[in-house]
Every structure is written in structure tokens, then in C-alpha cells.
């Protein structure tokens, strides 16, 4: 590995599987001997839970404001495979401003020289939900990360959120912001789900880095407080996460996506609605549908 | 609703206009007075400082508050916001903006309460608190209960509207007064013949402007040289001023402390006497014009104050000519008419 770490941001609609997928990618990379930092950028502070068996970890923001001299040891812990786990943290629900919290936490991590001192091969930022305000765009701005992966399912609202994230990426990329590494299709169940995500990627000048099916083994591992990589290392699902991690590690082809306009996105969705209707009513086979 | 409706919406308030009073009267009669655009605006007082000023005024019935008044004003915002004129501030930091500012507010209310035992405490909010939607009402309600004094929130934002006058309504609402009630300005004193042959420029909000125009013209025989209204709205006071100016064939200028515009208008009007509030009085005094500052002169003392100012008009002139008094604008800038920067609203 070269000494310059690959800095990756993971975004996607709320609840789409960002933390689960990010943790499994981190675990897969660490398993191969890489030095990995995973930073949860979410006031819930639950990004790295499955890497550290759900044990208590003070957040960056709690620590900044509890003591004047914060050390890396105070705000991090080593999880599975030695992954350095950090949670930015933030206000309790309903008060303050979580977005400004993200930018303050990232600033502190830079001041602490975490990225140089730990000498990681990979840094993964798991960022809350949609980009709702400027603060949540901090990880993709001004060179903090190199590339963004956007997680989506084939559900329209997830694709809609991905399209909005593409807008944020295309806004910041020209001035040194992160570029798109690709989409990660998660929780695929229906046979046509893959086709929908592929088609959205094609329409927006992006690509799909991996397809992760919905599987009960994910939930089961989570209940043990572990990633799939740790809890069920021999399962096909673990292999899927390893393949995804390898694709991301090898990928150097970053792009500026072309998000769809509101009308185009609506037409696109309607088109798929018609296809799925025909398919569900046995009017066509899966492959004729596209 | 803790927040009274904006005057812009409720009263069709505008803060920029220069031109025929008839046209503006027509717009108000038709119910569609349009805010003009200012292509060059000087920063002026905002609703937060105006609310604080009003809080100081109301409890003491019109006079600026004395320390004997048993209320304290906390400005709930970052350090610099205490410039709005409160007695203390919560000095919010970045931490508070991220994690919420409730704790600081509670602590400051307790501190002020213990230090000076006021009969009531006003909590005046600022943009940071408004943007984060920090909960101020619960804190005020709880501490009202536990401390046994009124803790009254004044929910100013500093950015919801253009006119500082809204601050008055916020202050009145906090005190449980009717925010929408029209406040009748007291008459200013007059003396027959006192201002005969004198040209008087008046720069005041509509209610006060109407009262002082009456005292100057019909009361004391003076001539109105020009009027700058701090704002215009659909109240009777605005209508009265506009009709009067129409009768005199004078244009009306609507501006909230726009020093540059006022300077240009005063340069061409050349009045003998200027009647206005502190900020505008400073502008007129720089030009060597004798002034009555109605912010410090009570209305019943107006006639005496006008007589004194005119009697010592050399003082104002010498002040303006003093070597230490720098020119505010280049001569070229002063060749522009006063309404130069006020344009009909351009839709972008
Ligand atoms: N491929 C999958 N198969 C089955 N369950 C999954 C899969 N991916 C995620 N999940 C489950 O979905 C739930 C939400 O996942 P996760 O917490 O990772 O989402 P998130 O995008 O991080 O959410 P948030 O926006 O709240 O941070 C979890 O309970 C997780 O176990
Ligand atoms: Mg998450």
C-alpha cells in the first residue's frame, strides 16, 4: 500500500444500510491486513457499533466540549481487525445543529493529525442520511475525501436521495470536492431490482460497484453486535462484502455524475412503474422488460 | 402565536420610496403598495436592537429606562449580539450552536436573578438561536415557575423581515400588550410664530412625523422643507403625512437611517432646522444644520428646544466646519439626487 490513504465517503438515504455496509467493508479490508479508520458522521453515533461489539465509545463532540485537551485515545477505540473506530457524535434529537457538529468534529480530527499519525491505508466516512445542510456536505468538500459511494436500493425514494446526492457531488467536485466512486446497490430482493439500479447508473453517468442482496444473516450478525465478516466469515454474504471492498480498494475511476432533473427523474420512475406492472402480471419476462 | 405577524404583511410596510406622495397614496388605496429596491443600502438598526429599545421604553412610559426600573434584558446569542443593547448576554459559542443553547440560557437567567433580583427578565433571541430553533419558550416557562418572577421571551430573529419596526411588536407581545394596536403619538408643543419664515426638515416614523409636522406648520408657522419617513404603511399617520406633502407639492422620501440619501436631500433642501431621532440628527449636524433630537427631547419640550437650537445655530455650523470633522462622501457622490439608489422592484 502506498502511504497516501484512500479517503472514502459513504452516503445514502436514511436507513438504507450505510453503517452496516461501511462496517463490513472496513472489516473486509482490515481482515486483509490493511490499516483502516471508520468515522461515523451522525449524531446517533452508531456507525461503528458492529466493529466494536457495541461497546461504549465517547464521541468526538462530547470530548471536545468536556475537556480542552483531547487526545486520539479519548475518542477512538480499536475494533475488529484493528479498525480505528471514531464517532463524531452530536446533539440529542431536537436541539442544536448536527450539521455544524460534523464540520467541528472533522476539523478536530484534522487538528489532532489523526490521518497522518495512524498512517491508515483507508479512511471511511459514514455520513448521515441525505445532504440536508452544508454541514453534511463537509466530508465531500475541499479534499477531505477522494471519492463517494452512494448506497441505494431499487426503491424510488432511495434512488431519489441518491440523485440528490449526485447533485451535491457535482456541485463540489469542480472545486476540489470528492468525486463519485459509484453506487452500491443494497437490500436487493426483487429480480428486477438490479436492473433498476443499473439503469439509474447508466442514465446518470455513474457505475455500480457492487450488489448486496438482502439477507437475514446481516440482521443476525448485527444482533450479536458483529459484522457479517466477523460473525459469519464463511457465508456467501461475507464474500459479497469482501468483493465489494476489493472493488472499492482497486477503483481509481472517479467521475462527476450527471443527476437527473426533476421531470426526467419522474419520467424515469414512471417508465419503471409500467415495466414492473407488466412483469408482475406475467405479461413479459424479466429480460424483455428492459 | 408568540410571534406577531410581520408589519410588511399586516400593514403593507415599506422602507424604500422616493417620489410623489400621490402615487404612494394611490398604491395604499388600491391595497398594493410595493416595496422598492435599494441598489445601495447602508446598514441600519435591526429589529433586535429596536425591540430592546422598546423594552426600555414601555415599562417607563415613554422615557428611556432608568436603572431603577426592575427589569433585566438578556441577549440570548453570541458575544457580539450583546451590542443590541441588553444588560447581559448568554455569549453562545460554537459548542452551544452545535449542542443546543438551553443550558447556557438557564445558567444566565439564574446568574442575573441572583445578582440583581429583578422583577422580570426579558430573553431577547438572535439569529443563531432562531436558525437552530433552540427552545427558549420552555426554559422561560419553567424558570418563571421556579424563580417566581416573569421570564419573558422576545422572539426576534434578525432576518425574517426588513423593517426594524417589527422589533416594537415583538417587545409589546412579550409584555402581553396588543402588538397590533396603533400607538397614538403625543402632540409636540408649538408656539405661534416661533418658526415663521423658517424651513424645517423632518425625518421620523409616520406617527411622530405627523405630530411634528402639525407642531411646526399649523402650530408654529414654519415651512416644511422636506420629509423622510422611517417607513410607510397603511395607517392613518402615513396617510396624513402623504396628503400634507401632496398639498405642499413636495416628494416623500421613505428610508430607515440611510445616511447617504438623507445627506443628499438635506444638501438640496437647505433647511434651517432639522427634527429627527439620534442617528439622523448626527447626519444633519455634520452638515451644520441646527437640530432637535426627539429621541432625547420630550414632545412637550419641542418648542423650547427648537427655539434654543435656532438661537445657537452658529454652534451647529462651527461643529460642521471643525477641522476634525471628516467629509463622509466625495463631492462626486453628492451630485446624485437623494433617491438615486431607489428603484422600482426588479424581478431577477
Ligand atoms: N443487505 C442487508 N440485508 C439485510 N438487512 C440489512 C442489509 N443492509 C442493512 N440491513 C439492515 O438495515 C438496518 C439499517 O441499516 P443501517 O443502520 O446500516 O442503515 P443506515 O443507512 O446506516 O441508517 P441511518 O441512516 O439511520 O444511519 C439494519 O438493521 C441493518 O441490519
Ligand atoms: Mg447509520
* Structural class label of chain B: alpha/beta
Q: What is the class of the largest domain in chain B in the CATH system?
A: Alpha Beta
Helix content of chain A: 25-40%
How many helices of chain B? The count is 14
- Biggest β-sheet description of chain A: 8 strands, mixed
- CA-CA gap between termini of chain B: 33 Å
Strand count of chain A: 8
Rg of chain A, please?
19 Å
- In terms of structural class, how would the helical and strand content of chain A be classed? alpha/beta
Stated plainly, the CATH topology of the largest domain in chain A is called Rossmann fold
- Fold-level CATH name of the largest domain in chain B: Rossmann fold
Oligomer description: heterodimer
Count of domain modules of chain A: 2
CATH structural class of the largest domain in chain A? Alpha Beta
Q: Kindly state the mean pLDDT of chain B as a whole number?
A: 89
Label the overall shape of chain B.
globular
CATH level-four homologous superfamily name of the largest domain in chain A: P-loop containing nucleotide triphosphate hydrolases
Overview of this protein structure:
The complex is a heterodimer of chains A (290) and B (348). Chain A has an 8-stranded mixed β-sheet, sandwiched between helices. Chain A has 290 residues and is an alpha/beta fold. Chain A folds into 2 domains: 6-259, P-loop containing nucleotide triphosphate hydrolases (Rossmann fold, 3-Layer(aba) Sandwich), CATH 3.40.50; 261-290. The model of chain A has no long low-confidence stretch (mean pLDDT 92). Chain A is globular and about 65 Å long. Helix content of chain A is 39%, strand content 17%. Chain B is α/β, with parallel strands linked by helices and 348 residues long. Chain B contains 14 helices and 12 strands. Chain A binds chain B through residues 61, 64-65, 90-92, 94-98, 100-101, 104, and chain B through 94-102, 131-132, 134-135. Bound molecules: adenosine-5'-triphosphate and magnesium ion. The site of adenosine-5'-triphosphate has 19 residues of chain A, from helix 1, strand 7 and helix 7.
Amino acid at each position: 500500500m502506498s502511504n497516501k490513504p484512500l479517503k472514502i465517503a459513504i452516503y445514502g438515504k436514511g436507513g438504507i444500510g450505510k453503517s452496516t455496509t461501511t462496517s463490513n467493508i472496513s472489516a473486509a479490508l482490515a481482515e486483509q491486513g490493511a490499516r483502516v479508520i471508520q468515522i461515523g458522521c451522525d449524531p446517533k453515533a452508531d456507525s461503528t457499533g458492529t466493529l466494536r461489539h457495541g461497546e461504549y465509545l465517547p464521541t468526538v463532540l462530547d470530548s471536545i466540549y468536556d475537556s480542552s485537551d483531547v487526545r486520539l485515545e479519548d475518542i477512538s477505540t480499536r475494533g475488529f481487525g484493528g479498525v480505528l473506530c471514531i464517532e463524531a457524535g452530536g446533539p440529542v434529537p431536537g436541539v442544536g445543529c448536527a450539521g455544524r457538529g460534523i464540520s467541528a468534529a472533522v476539523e478536530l480530527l484534522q487538528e489532532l493529525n489523526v490521518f497522518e499519525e495512524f498512517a491508515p491505508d483507508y479512511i471511511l466516512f459514514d455520513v448521515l442520511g441525505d445532504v440536508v445542510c452544508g454541514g453534511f456536505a463537509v466530508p465531500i468538500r475541499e479534499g477531505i475525501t477522494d471519492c463517494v459511494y452512494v448506497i441505494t436500493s431499487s426503491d424510488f425514494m432511495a434512488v431519489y436521495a441518491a440523485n440528490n446526492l449526485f447533485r451535491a457531488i457535482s456541485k463540489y467536485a469542480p472545486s476540489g470536492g470528492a468525486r463519485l466512486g459509484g453506487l452500491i446497490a443494497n437490500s436487493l430482493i426483487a429480480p428486477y431490482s438490479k436492473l433498476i439500479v443499473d439503469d439509474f447508473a447508466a442514465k446518470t453517468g455513474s457505475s455500480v460497484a457492487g450488489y448486496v442482496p438482502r439477507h437475514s444473516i446481516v440482521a443476525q450478525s448485527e444482533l450479536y453486535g458483529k459484522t457479517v465478516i466477523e460473525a459469519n466469515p464463511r457465508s456467501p454474504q461475507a464474500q459479497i462484502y469482501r468483493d465489494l471492498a476489493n472493488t472499492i480498494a482497486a477503483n481509481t475511476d472517479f467521475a462527476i455524475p450527471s443527476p437527473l432533473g426533476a421531470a426526467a427523474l419522474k419520467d424515469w420512475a414512471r417508465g419503471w412503474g409500467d415495466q414492473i406492472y407488466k412483469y408482475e402480471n406475467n405479461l413479459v419476462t424479466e429480460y424483455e422488460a428492459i | 402565536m408568540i410571534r406577531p405577524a410581520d408589519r410588511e404583511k399586516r400593514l403593507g410596510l415599506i422602507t424604500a420610496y422616493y417620489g410623489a406622495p400621490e402615487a404612494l397614496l394611490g398604491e395604499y388605496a388600491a391595497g398594493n403598495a410595493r416595496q422598492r429596491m435599494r441598489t445601495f443600502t447602508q446598514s441600519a438598526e435591526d429589529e433586535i436592537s429596536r425591540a430592546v429599545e422598546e423594552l426600555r421604553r414601555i415599562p417607563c412610559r415613554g422615557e428611556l429606562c432608568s436603572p431603577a426600573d426592575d427589569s433585566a434584558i438578556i441577549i440570548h446569542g453570541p458575544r457580539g449580539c450583546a451590542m443590541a443593547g441588553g444588560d447581559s448576554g448568554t455569549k453562545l459559542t460554537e459548542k452551544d450552536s452545535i449542542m443546543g443553547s438551553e443550558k447556557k440560557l438557564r445558567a444566565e437567567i439564574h446568574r442575573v436573578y441572583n445578582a440583581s433580583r429583578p422583577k422580570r427578565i426579558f430573553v431577547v433571541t438572535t439569529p443563531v438561536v432562531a436558525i437552530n430553533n433552540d427552545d427558549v419558550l420552555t426554559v422561560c416557562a419553567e424558570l418563571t415557575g421556579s424563580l417566581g418572577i416573569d421570564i419573558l421571551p422576545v422572539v426576534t430573529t434578525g432576518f425574517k423581515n426588513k423593517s426594524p419596526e417589527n422589533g416594537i411588536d415583538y417587545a409589546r407581545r412579550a409584555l402581553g400588550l396588543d402588538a397590533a394596536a396603533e400607538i397614538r403619538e403625543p402632540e409636540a408643543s408649538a408656539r405661534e410664530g416661533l418658526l415663521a419664515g423658517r424651513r424645517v426638515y423632518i425625518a421620523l416614523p409616520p406617527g411622530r412625523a405627523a405630530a411634528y409636522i402639525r407642531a411646526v406648520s399649523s402650530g408654529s408657522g414654519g415651512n416644511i422643507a422636506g420629509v423622510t419617513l422611517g417607513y410607510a404603511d397603511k395607517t392613518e399617520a402615513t396617510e396624513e403625512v402623504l396628503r400634507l406633502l401632496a398639498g405642499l407639492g413636495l416628494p416623500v422620501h421613505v428610508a430607515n437611517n440611510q445616511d447617504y440619501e438623507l445627506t443628499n436631500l438635506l444638501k438640496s433642501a437647505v433647511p434651517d432646522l432639522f427634527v429627527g431621532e439620534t442617528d439622523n440628527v448626527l447626519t444633519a449636524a455634520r452638515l451644520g444644520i441646527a437640530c432637535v433630537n426627539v429621541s432625547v427631547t420630550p414632545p412637550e419640550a419641542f418648542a423650547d428646544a427648537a427655539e434654543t437650537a435656532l438661537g445657537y445655530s452658529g454652534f451647529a455650523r462651527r461643529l460642521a466646519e471643525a477641522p476634525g470633522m471628516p467629509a463622509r462622501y466625495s463631492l462626486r457622490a453628492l451630485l446624485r439626487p437623494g433617491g438615486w439608489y431607489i428603484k422600482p422592484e426588479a424581478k431577477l
